[in-house]
Amino acid sequence: MDIVIRHGTVVTAGDISQTDVGIEGGVVTHIGRGLGPSAREIDASGKYLFPGGVDVHTHVDFELLGNRSVDDFYSGTAAAACGGVTTIVDYALPAPGQSIQGSIEAWQQKAKDKTIIDYGLHPVILEPTQKIIDEMAEAVADGHSSFKLFMIGMARFDELAAHYMKVIAQAGRVGALTNIHAEDQCLISYLAEQFAAAGKFGVRHFADSRPRLSEGLAVQRAIAMARYAEAPIYLVHLSCEEALAPVREARAHGQIVYGETRPIYLHLSRERFEEPDGERYLGWPPLREASQMQVMWDGLRCDNLQTVATDHCGWSLTQKKSGKKVEDLLPGMSNLETMLPMLYSEGVSKGRLSLNRFVEVISTNPAKLFGLYPQKGTIAVGSDADIVIFDPKKAVTIRHRDMHSRSDYELYEGFDVTGWPTMTLSRGEVIVENGKVLGSSGRGKLIRRKRFSPM
Ligand SMILES: [Zn+2]
């Protein structure tokens, strides 16, 4: 064997066991106690072995509202690897008039020489023409088995809703999962105009400009569209009860609907917008009242939400502070490096999530939903040796200076967490050891994903 990791506690979605893990040719080949000798021995006494995190919602190298994000696929995936994430699925946005294939190729160009972890791509559809709908089957056959729709202005959703419904139906027919950003543009546009007229500018008014009901309305509409299109949907970055309630109800009726939440809605509340530089916390949808954080934790525990994903997009604080009107404020933040340790510390250590559920929401479920399982998302014989060695006792105060994203601020500056990755392996190669990045740029591969099947 190339590597044996000994004496660790292996945690998967269904199991916890003290055992050795043997790796050969980049895959797990042996699991059991007292495995034979190997070229490299790694002692994991007192540590957990988790399957590497699978973050299915990233915008690593991205342009929005005239700004280019500060990370590229090297810095973004180095941050991911340091935080125990070994696979991302990034959103490939088309240029005006571009084909699905064209957007995939453009994103591969950005990623291929830089990424240090494996990645997949979700094609985004911003122009739901018949030509684009006709291209969807080929994209799925090429291994891109999910599409993203935005129910907001940048996608002209309200104007083109009937065409977007055909996209959802076609995705279902060709074996893909449709990811939906659900916020109601009618309410948002109306409020933005009212706020501007009343002189309410800036981040302090941001949460009220995109209220919980705008999210709830859009989720209800998306679920109804998917029901009549007879297709599965996956609702990204849900933040509040108004969004979760229709998901819970649809799932109870057997509709194939999944929900994702995002770390900021578990760890932060809207009071943050009152801080100096409150723009640093700004995302679409906004942070909500503190009461909603518990709603999100309950949703995760009870399987009304299936995944946690970051929506990572690294900006500088200057970029974040550049917008004036509420609708011009730049959403998104760097989050890949802290997702696992924060979720472990706030979730597992505080008794909100079991160890198995933690692994399920950060690795197994996203891998299953997006056609990566069992290559990714578990530690099993035959799976890629994407493994995080995690020290549950390691106390860390989160500081921007220790992070690997090129963003010039840290969302959780000064937060104390217990538990941090000490080593990250990707396909059997140690790519991070004690915070030092060892993986070379461009070593990561584009993963061709399988067709969607319900879980
Ligand atoms: Zn996003």
Please tell me about this protein's structure.
The protein has about 450 residues and is α/β, with parallel strands linked by helices. It folds into two domains: about 5-50 and about 380-435, Roll (Urease, subunit C, domain 1), CATH 2.30.40; about 55-370, TIM Barrel (Alpha-Beta Barrel). Helix content is about 30%, strand content about 25%. It contains 13 helices and 19 strands. It has helices at about 75-80, 100-110, 130-140, 155-175, 185-195, 205-210, 210-230, 240-250, 265, 290-300, 315-320, 340-350, 355-370; strands at about 5-10, 15-25, 25-30, 40-45, 50, 55-60, 65, 65-70, 85-90, 120-125, 145-150, 175-180, 235-240, 255-260, 305-310, 385-395, 415-425, 430-435, 435. Strands 1, 2, 3, 4, 5, 16, 17, 18 and 19 form a nine-stranded mixed beta sheet that branches. β17 (about 415-425) and β18 (about 430-435) form a beta hairpin. The longest helix is centred in the middle third of the chain and has 18 residues, at about 155-175. The radius of gyration is 21 Å and the shape is globular. The two termini are about 35 Å apart. The model has no long low-confidence stretch (mean pLDDT about 95). Zinc ion binds near residues 57, 59 and 311. Zinc ion (ZN) binds next to loops.
Layout of helices and strands:
Blueprint: E1 3-11, E2 16-24, E3 27-32, E4 40-43, E5 48-51, E6 53-58, E7 63-64, E8 67-68, H1 73-82, E9 85-92, H2 100-111, E10 118-123, H3 130-141, E11 146-150, H4 157-174, E12 177-181, H5 185-197, H6 206-209, H7 212-229, E13 233-238, H8 241-252, E14 257-261, H9 263-267, H10 290-301, E15 307-308, H11 317-320, H12 339-348, H13 355-369, E16 387-397, E17 416-426, E18 429-433, E19 436-437
Parallel strand pairs: 1-4, 1-5, 6-9, 9-10, 11-12, 12-13, 13-14, 14-15
Antiparallel strand pairs: 1-2, 2-3, 5-16, 7-8, 16-17, 17-18, 18-19
Residues 57, 59, 311 line the site of zinc ion.
